[in-house]
Amino acid sequence: MLVLIVGAGRVGSAVARSALAAGHEVSVLDDDPLSHERLDAGMDTTWEEAGGRFTVGTALEVEALIAAGIEEADVFIASTNGDNTNLTISQVAQRRFGVDRVIVRVMDPARSDWYREQGLNTICPTKHAIEMFNASLGLTA
Hints:
Elements: E1 2-6, H1 10-21, E2 25-30, H2 36-40, E3 53-56, H3 62-68, E4 75-78, H4 83-96, E5 101-105, H5 109-117, E6 121-123, H6 125-136
Parallel strand pairs: 1-2, 1-4, 2-3, 4-5, 5-6
């Protein structure tokens, strides 16, 4: 199974290393060539020697998505630091390229809920933090 992850920050690189360790083919796309260092962190070999792929490019450009392997992707994960970018590229992955499993990180809870209703699998750390806070006070949402 090919997992394409856009964004090699802390979240994207951690998920990428986990997926690679689980035996999946993993491709990471990021516009910062230095973000590659996060993929190598904690590994005995380099990311590529371990079997990972890394592409430098802007995810909003279809050519970069194609170079990273979106046409073969079984799973697409958008984990950049921008909601707009994540939501846009997730819809491109789902609608244009027909990726069945699309996961998108969205910081804004209202947008996360709306896009979930539109068929995207959203993860919202902000919403989770609010729920945890409320639960710690015995409050219900």
